[in-house]
Amino acid sequence: MDFLSEIVIPPNETHLQVLRFVLFISLALFFPYMGATIGATMFSVYFNRKGRNSRGSIYYRFACDIMDKLIFSKGVGLGLGVVPVLSATFVYMQFMYETKSAVVGMMITASLLYYLGITLIYKYKANFDIEEVVDTLKAVINEDKEKKQIPEEIEEYEAGLKASKTTFGGWGLVCLMVASLFFVGGTSLITNPGEWAHASPLIYMFSVPVLINYCFFICAGLAFTGIAILFYFFGWNGGIKNRSDNYKIYVKRFAGSLAFYSIIILPVLFLSSFLTYHSHAFSASLFVIGALALIIILLTANFLYALIRNSEIKYSGAMFYLMIVSFSLISLKDVSAINAALKEQFEKVHLLAEEYQKKHNKIEVKDTGISGEDIFNAKCSACHKFDTKLVGPAYKDVLPKYNDNVKKLAAFVYNPVKVNPDFPPMPNQGLKPKEAEAVAQYILTKVKDYAK
Ligand code: HEC
After folding, report:
1. What is the tens place of the pLDDT at every residue in 401-418?
2. Is the pTM above the cut of 0.70?
3. Which of 65, 145, 224, 370 is deepest in the core (most CB within 10 A)?
4. Cα(60)–Cα(317) distance, rounded to whole angstroms?
């Protein structure tokens, strides 16, 4: 990954601040989106299997509706699923400037797998639509009294469709699950600087801290999926239409228990994930943010309980937004942990940033040819000396009145005006502003050697 260190420059403090913010936004978008995508695909694939033999069954309808309601367009999928992981990767790259570790490699692997997974899942979703078209076609043929017989090609096509759909859905899900393991692994590893030098990605990914964080990620995703199903099927825009009561009762019960059981395990996993942090990662803000996140999770659980007991679906919107807030707090907690864990690393990066800045400035002066001394020798020495007058006055007589004000002197050199009636006017030397400044700086410094 050496080429990566070429495109990354050591960030300074303002730059780091921006990077922390970018990381927060990326994680806050990514967590709820990916959680719901994994959950939705998991249950759609499951119910699709369960209902595969009867297209009219509740299960098949549910599998189809989940994809329809919870998985938005492919653009949204890439925008909220892949772009945030890529920008988090970029931020980690800057944070870890000039240190060797597996973090960036793990994050890039995660991005590629997410891309593949999302592509497959959109193929899976598209197959539902095609199946619907085939169904309509079959219905039309069935109505035709003379033909009654469904042509063989259609039956074959349908069988192929079914098989490829299962493949797309299954493999898409596997890609997203494995990608998440890489993602969680990379994000855990970055908070653990002691491991950077020798952690091998495959072994580290199956260590206890990563597995706990992974379970937390999946469990939060499942809770959010349940709540999102309740919200999009029953709360949003008056809820789903043209479905039997049986179907609605089934979905409500399924999504309610899914959300409820996931959300009561969530606090346990959340607290365990705190214990997995390396001592460097702890800070006061980590506890405050963590406590807030926990309170919101418990509050959501409370709403869910009311919903299940009294089937009060009107809370689904509140729960949906509460979950989004808790995902934001969880992201903030992660950024805060990374920040505390990287304190030493940031100090190192600071020094590098300063050095880089110095080196860069020097190169700039040389490259554009703005050296005060060279300009003096080429453009001024014909008329000026420091200690005696030539065509123009001696610098030691005229410069003291500038009082070391480089800008003021540069303004004169850039555009000379008439000053002393004993001298002819000084011709404009046609310098660029930067050059005027450089030569002004040079003569102001140099004239001190001639001070009386
Ligand atoms: C062709 C001759 C000539 C060249 C070349 C020339 N100067 Fe001068 N310079 C003069 C003369 C003549 C004056 C006096 C003008 C006046 O008092 O009005 C002067 C005055 C000055 C003053 C005094 C201004 C003041 O406030 O009293 C400074 C400073 C100065 N020159 C800097 C420069 C620098 C820097 C360069 C090179 C980029 C330069 N000059 C090139 C002829 C020249």
Report:
1. 888 888 899 999 998 998
2. no
3. 224
4. 26
Close Cβ partners of 108 (under 8 Å, ≥ 6 residues apart): 89
Report the C-alpha gap between 190 and 183 in whole angstroms: 11
Please indicate whether residue 342, judged by its CB atom, sits closer than 6 Å to ligand 1. Answer: no
For 291-314, letters b (16+ CB in 10 Å) and e give eebbebbeebbebbeebeeeeebe
Mean pLDDT to the nearest integer, 177-195: 86
Q: Rounded CA gap, 279 and 291, in Å? A: 18
d(CA 66, CA 74): 15
The protein residue whose alpha carbon is closest to atom 23 in ligand 1 is 398
The DSSP result for 280-307, as a single string, is GG--HHHHHHHHHHHHHHHHHHHHHHHH
Residue 173, SS3 per DSSP: helix
Strand partners, 384: 389
Tell me the mean pLDDT in the region 370-391.
89
60, 155, 183 from 43: Cα distances, Å: 11, 26, 22
Q: What's the CA-to-centroid distance between 426 and ligand 1, angstroms?
A: 5
> 447 CA to middle of ligand 1, Å?
14
Facing residues of 95 across strands?
Answer: none
Neighbours of 163 (CB within 10 A): 10
SS3 115: helix
366 Cα–ligand 1 center, Å: 25
Give CA–CA dist 66/197, Å, rounded: 44
Shortest-distance Cα residue to atom 40 of ligand 1:
380
| Cα distance between residue 192 and residue 64, in whole Å | 42
C-beta of 425 in contact with ligand 1 (< 6 A): yes
Q: What's the pLDDT score for residue 240?
A: 77
The CA 369 to ligand 1 mean position distance, Å, reads 21
pLDDT in tens, 213-232: 899 999 999 999 998 888 88
Closest CA to 43 of 251, 297, 215, 182: 251
Domain ranges of the chain: 2-343, 368-450
Q: Given CA atoms 137, 240, 218, 331 in this order, what sign does their dihedral have?
A: positive
Burial class (CB in 10 A: 0-12, 13-18, 19+), 423: middle
- C-alpha 234/C-alpha 249 separation (Å) is 11
Closest by CA to 420, choosing from 447, 393, 446, is 393
